[in-house]
Amino acid sequence: MNEQDEVVGGVGIGPLDWEAGICELQKLYIDKSARGHGLSKQLMKQAMDYALQDGYERIYIVTDSRLPVANQLYQKYQFERLKAPLPQDPHPGCDTWYIRDIRLADAG
Known about the structure:
Layout lengths: L8 E9 L4 E9 L8 H15 L4 E6 L4 H9 L3 E3 L13 E6 L7
Parallel strand pairs: 2-3
Antiparallel strand pairs: 1-2, 3-5, 4-5
């Protein structure tokens, strides 16, 4: 929320493969007006904490190579780039995939 009580960002976690302990980071977004203030780090930490509390061990991310800022962000937070999507991937239109063991300390 900003000073006017407007939502300026958000993130979600969704199931991907419960048996393998993998969830998916969904819709990490920060409005342009709120970027540059550390909100992505706060949201990433909240998402990882929530996923751990919910019993997940790894977070999977699907994005696109045409989104360089998003790709840089995920790499900054120690996500490992994959060469191909996971078999359970529900997003056939994307071309970039990441995964991270969230049991590792520090969100970035």
